[in-house]
Amino acid sequence: MSPDTTDTNAVELATELTIAWLGNPNTRTSADEVPSFLGKMHDTVSALLNAGSQPAPAADASAEYVPAVSARKSLASKDHIISMIDGKPYKTLRRHLATNGLTPVEYRERYGLKPDYPMVAENYSESRRAMAKKIGLGRKPGTKVENQGAGRRRKATEAQAAE
Questions:
Q1: Which residues pair with 130 in a beta bridge?
Q2: Is 106 within 8 Å of 115 (Cβ atoms)?
Q3: How far apart are CA 163 and CA 152, in angstroms?
Q4: Which residue, 109, 65, 104, is CA-closest to 81?
Q5: Alpha-carbon distance 115 to 138, whole Å?
Q6: What does the alpha-carbon distance between residue 93 and residue 90 come to, in Å, rounded to a whole number?
Q7: Which long-range contacts (CB under 8 A, 24 or more apart) does 21-29 make?
C-alpha cells in the first residue's frame, strides 16, 4: 500500500469517525472543537494504519515476567496457593490460569517452577480425596464400600419393627 493511499484512507476513516461522533445525540460540542477533534482522529487513524502495516515486534515472546510472590511464599499455606500472576490466593489454579490464557505447563515455564509444582492447595486436595474415597472412587472392581448400605438396612429394619 502506497503512502498516498494510506493517507487518503486515514482522511476518509477520520472523517467518517468524526461524522459518527457528531451524529451521536449525546455529543454536545461547539463548532470550534470539530477541527481539532478531526485532526486528533486523523493522527490516531494514521498511527493505527502505519502500525498495522508493520510487523509486530516479538517482545512478548521473550518478555521477562516478574512473579507477584516467590514460589516459597505461594505455597506457604496449606489452605490456598497464591498466584504468581496477581498475588491472590486460590484453592486451585486451573481456572485462574485459563482466564489468563495459560496452561499449567506454560505457567510453570513462565516462572521457572519445577514440573511437580502443585496446581491445587494441599487441604483442598485432601478433602476432595477423602470425599472420593467415601463415595467409593478409587477402589478395585468387585470390592464393597464400607458402610454404603448400612443406613438403608437400618431404616428398613426400623420400618419393619414399627409395623
A1: none
A2: no
A3: 17
A4: 104
A5: 25
A6: 6
A7: none
**pLDDT tens track for 94-129:** 999 999 999 999 999 999 999 999 999 999 999 999
CA-CA distance, 153 to 163, in Å (whole number)?
Answer: 16
On the CB side of 74, how many CA atoms lie within 13 Å of its CA?
23
| Beta-carbon contacts of residue 73 (< 8 Å; ≥ 6 apart) | 82
Q: Which amino acid would we find at residue 119?
A: M
pLDDT in the model for residue 115: 93
Q: How far is CA 42 from CA 7, 27, 48, 136, in A?
A: 9, 19, 10, 68
Residue position matching grid coordinates 478395585:
140
Residue 77 to residue 99: CA distance in whole angstroms = 23
pLDDT tens digits, one per residue of 9-46: 888 888 888 888 888 887 777 888 888 888 888 888 88
**What are the residues whose beta carbons fall under 8 Å from the beta carbon of 80, sequence distance 6 or more?**
89, 90, 91, 121, 124
Give, to the nearest 10 degrees, the angle between helix 33-53 and helix 3-23: 140
